[in-house]
Amino acid sequence: MSVLNTLAFVVFPYLALTTFVVGHLYRYLTNPYDWNSKSSELLDKEGLKIGITIFHWGIIFALLGHGAGLLIPQRYWDALGINSQAHTLFATYSGFVVGAAALLGLALLIYRRISKDRILATTTLNDFVTLGLLFFVVATGFANVVSGLFDHFDILNTIAPWLRGILTLTPDASLMLKVPLRFKIHILAVLTLLGFSPFSRLVHIWSVPLTYLFRRLIVFRRREVSL
Ligand code: HEM
Fold first, then answer.
1. C-alpha 173 to ligand 1 mean position (Å)
2. What is the pTM of this model?
3. Is 116 in the pocket of ligand 1 (CB under 6 A)?
4. Own/partner pairs for 110-118, CB < 8 Å, 24+ apart?
5. Whose alpha carbon is nearest atom 8 of ligand 1?
6. Total domain count for the chain?
7. Within-domain flag for 220
8. pLDDT (tens digit, 9 = 90+) per residue, 23-56?
């Protein structure tokens, strides 16, 4: 059991994270023109709008929430006057809102891929795997949030330090021994998605177009500087 636990929560995470880092670097350096989100907006704009918007808002805030909640040790939150109880309560309710948005958005995106002929015709197996894996990750995460409303599990002293240990190269698989299966399934699904990410359209996540915020409104007109 403990060997299986070490395989799942030390060996597998490092395999997935190495594939994630090396895979992204390799793809970016060898095939930069393929590094994009493979937009399907030209084929169907109306069907895309709602799903893509609520999915992206939901998933981006879910990622930020995971970062703040799991990577920052509780002692720093304590110093800010946010104790573990308040932390968990906020994580549960905000997780419910952003998780529901991401899940609903994904369901709409998958429905669009299947129901619109021209979108289905241009959808690859890779797209289905990406959307299917994402759906599984978000659905298991959302299910954990919902069950957290009824049955509390102490994530802050188990999963959170385990994750920080993985990222700081001081892994401790024993922290995961008493974690309920529902969390383990979510974590293993996330690691699988991270390992698959470099081979999919998810690479676009790393190219946040921040310069877009500061670009000229009419891009083909030179900016005149009046003296
Ligand atoms: C960092 C900010 C992000 C930006 C600027 C961004 C931008 C985009 C754009 C422009 C598209 C193409 C939409 C179209 O078809 O025209 C797209 C699609 C997509 N994005 Fe993102 N994205 C971001 C983050 C994410 C994250 C964090 C995820 C998931 C973890 C994600 C997953 C997807 C998926 C699965 C699609 C394809 C949806 C479909 O066509 O069915 N994106 N994104």
1. 33
2. 0.92
3. no
4. 110/135, 111/51, 112/44, 112/47, 112/48, 112/51, 116/43, 116/44, 116/47, 118/43, 118/44
5. 37
6. 1
7. no
8. 999 999 999 999 999 999 999 999 999 999 999 9
